[in-house]
Amino acid sequence: MFSNIKRRLHRITAVARLETIQLMRERTTFSLIVLIPLVQIILFGFAVNMNPKDVPMAIAGTQDGLYERLETIAEGTGYFLPLDGLLPQGSAEARVRSGQALIGIELAEEVDFDDLEADAKPLTVYVDASDAQAVAAAASMMENAYLKHLLMGEVGNATSNTVWLYNPERETAWTIVPGLVGVVIMISMLMLGALSLVSERERGTWETLLTTPVEGLDALFGKLSPCVVMALLQAVLVVVAANVLFSVPMSGVAALLLIVVPLFAVAHLMLGFAFSALAQTQLQAVQGAVAFYLPSMLLSGFMFPYQGMPIWAKVIAEILPLTHFVRMARGLMLKGQSFAAVAHELLPILIFMVIAMLFALRAYRAKLD
Amino acid sequence: MVGSGTHMDYEPLLSVSVLQKRFGERIAIDGFDLTLEKGQVYGLLGANGGGKTTCLRMLAGLLPPDGGFGTVLGYNLEGGDRKAFESMRHRVGYMAQKHSLYDNLTVEENLRFRADVYCLKDAKAAVAKLIEEFELGEYRNARARELSGGWARKLQLAAALVHGPELVLLDEPTAGLDAYAKAEVWECISKLADKGVGVIVSTHDLMEAQRCDKASFFVDGSIVASGTLDEIIGQSLVTRVTFLSTDYESYLKELTEQPYTLSIVKKTDGSCLALPSEELPALMEFSERKGIPVQMQAPTIEDAALALVRGWSEEKGGLYVQ
């Protein structure tokens, strides 16, 4: 019994050493492992902004006084860039349709803002909804500011105060980065797992490996363990880069994310390994990996809000490890939650990992036929 | 075919009967029989796609047979006995037809990996010994991808032997090699046999059959002849005849077009022709008609192969019964 375990460990170590040497010497693979997180964090951190400012706005009407008040409100939000002063009556919609403005406000004629009737419609807002996300935040801010202004008119200096928890400046990078750790690891591990066996098959080494005492479990753990170390390095790289470049908070609790990373990485490695065992070519294996990670990115809450999805999509999302990782990462990094508070998210990842492992082991010996 | 080796004091290394393998509707192997003794070199001959690789994979435990029975080093190919399977894998050396080396690893690292997965007690010493035996010292630190075809094959063979197997299965070990490299590989095989290792080697190079103690000739997954080289030639029922005339224009074209002609080679003193033995009367009639004397010769293994393949295909097509 003991000698069996010893021999198995020996074989796993041999395979792990083989994989490590190959990973280190395969420059393309190795550089991808470092480049993927760096490129993603730079793109998501610096380029992606889900809270755009300086949205071009056109205001049209006849009342100069009203225009000035409205311009003050708009500028006060910090989201708008009014165009060309007060435009001729009826031209707001045209400015939006011509693409010169994303929002156009048409002021009604002969309206007294200080004495509005209950059903009055003092202004019409035209929004370019072909890119709704680009103007959603700005439009929302405008509406808030407008209501606030009305409210002040009615009840003196009464006002409301919105407190933005966890991300007071609503920095996109802060929202993106915790989930990005998971996305980077998911893509890298799926790819590494997917290419592991199929590249051996194409080289012809798999056939030989199957004639040796190396069993499915040995190959699985041996091949995947260096990848888990890679995943940990990627996680550290993303978190540290996020802290240095975007001041994303990194409390001591955030380090606990490193406990989750190996499980999360193994879950995707196993799935990639199964794709690899079932595929005949590297292209097929990669296609399998892509077919999995694209829905993961879309449904996990990383890019789009989980709350906005229909029930069936939520059910799928709950199966995906990325969904739970994103929740844990945001909880630990942004909200400063305790590990205990997010630990329940580990269970679905574990279940997924075990199922993927069984699938991978079954696929390992099935394909020479 | 059941081999009868020269080392009958020993238990056979493997003994299989009527093995069959199907891939979907296609029968890849149809009734393979073999008994292999220690120190015997057995050849699997035939064209590409004939079923040689499938046969080796079944014997290595890589593919389960769909029919037939037998044991390899005590392991019953029908499966089930995990312990016997483990034991068999420790005692078999397998060399795949593909260039199955880790290209980014050095020669020494490739061998070390194979030694480690067999949990050899002194892997380092085993590797050093192989490097010396196969004269790989000069390339010890070269990456596998930097090796020429011949050296890569030698390394593959060395890797298959790192754990001192009792049975070695070699799939086209000389494919793509020049004559010198081929001779080196065969020298290694002979040394293995001298040590009592059983070797099964597949090849489509018919000249290599003479280096085997016995062989089976595969066509479309079936064994159409087996035994020693002479026995295979005998079973092919082929005849070789030399037309002793250098007036080639008077007969060569017409003879080439005869349906019984398997092959014809123009030589300086005449033309050599191979044909099925039963067609000899027709040939003699042609010879008399042309007034050209003929001389009977010993057929070669190539003649036999042509006759066996044609006989098989005509039998399948219902045109020719050998």
Structural commentary:
The complex is a heterodimer of chains A (369) and B (322). Chain A has 369 residues and is α/β, with parallel strands linked by helices. In chain A, 66% of the residues lie in helices and 7% in strands. Chain A is built from 14 helices and four strands. In chain A, strand 1, helix 3 (64-77) and strand 2 (80-87) form a beta-alpha-beta unit. Chain B is α/β, with parallel strands linked by helices and 322 residues long. Chain B contains ten helices and 14 strands. In chain B, helix 3 (107-117) packs parallel to helix 5 (149-160) and helix 7 (229-235) packs parallel to helix 10 (301-317). The longest helix of chain B has 17 residues, at 301-317. Chain B is globular, with a radius of gyration of 23 Å. The model of chain B is unreliable at 1-8 and 318-322 (pLDDT under 50). The chains are: A alpha/beta (369), B alpha/beta (322). The interface between A and B is medium-sized, with 26 and 31 residues.
Q: Work out the helicity level of chain B.
A: 25-40%
Q: What is the string of SSEs of chain A from the N terminus onward?
A: HHEHEHEEHHHHHHHHHH
Strand order of the largest sheet of chain A: 2-1-3-4
- The low-confidence runs of chain B, each spanning 5 or more residues with pLDDT under 50, are 1-8, 318-322
Number of helices of chain A: 14
Measured by DSSP, the beta-strand proportion of chain A falls in 5-15%
Gist?
The complex is a heterodimer of chains A (369) and B (322). Chain A has 369 residues and is an alpha/beta fold. Chain A has 14 helices and four strands.
